[in-house]
What we know:
The chain contains ten helices and nine strands. It is of the alpha/beta class. The chain has a single domain (3-251), classed as NAD(P)-binding Rossmann-like Domain (Rossmann fold), CATH 3.40.50.720. The strands form two sheets. The chain has a seven-stranded parallel beta sheet, with helices on both faces. Strands 5-8 form a two-stranded parallel ribbon. It is globular, with a radius of gyration of 20 Å. The mean pLDDT is 92. Keywords: Oxidoreductase.
Amino acid sequence: MSLQEKVWIITGCSTGFGRHIAKHAINAGYKVAVTARNLEAIRDITEGHEENTLTLPLDVTNKDQINSVVSKTIEKFGHIDVLVNNAGIGYFASVEESIEEETRKMFEINFWGLMHMTNAVLPYMRNRKSGHIINFSSIGGLVSFPTLGYYHATKYALEGISESLAQEVASFNIHVTLIEPGSFRTDWGGRSSVKTETLISDYSESSVGQMLNFLQQGGGQEAGDPAKAAEAVIMVAQADKPPLRLLLGEGAYLGATTKFTNLLASIEEWKETTLNADFKN
Length: 281
């Protein structure tokens, strides 16, 4: 299939990664369905490219809108080749202080909304025996920090289900890739996240308070360049053998390699106890 024939759907395009990926995909010559909850925030992305783009409203917690986006994309372009599940939010609070209503809302967006979107496009990809699902996870899907416990839970869930999905759809020539960014200048810690004010004073001087201060002071100074992240996503989508996981940024690389080095060391340290848990023949 030529570059110009490939069709993308990208969620959460109003800001951050989604906005940059949409622009890069359009400039690369793809046909792109650009989506966001607020249409006015994305109209400029498709301006002048109306023949090869769609601008569609999408709240990933709304199944009717999901179905509408998929059907309108098929109606205009005939098929779907790449789905970028980018829409998501953050949540800052200690586990004990977290508000269930807010954390459930985050799960509805970060996990269930993403999976509903995925399940909506899979029949079309299976029918064509071709496709690529690119799920935005996080270094927080591999490594945990204080203050982000429930956010991590959404991303760890995404990591697990994406691994299973990749194995299930491989025979249909459908690829699955998890994108795992570190800290990027996307306003993730500001507009698109919720912060619960500290209710338990013990946490204010603990690692929780320290992390909240770090996030607040570091906003806008993150090392990651979202435009370069978008270029990496385009590269992954064009690869014949795309990776299951792609870390983005030095912080993500160091965080992941440190965790898994320490994890392997711990596994080996307790190897005898682990192996002794089996029945002995």
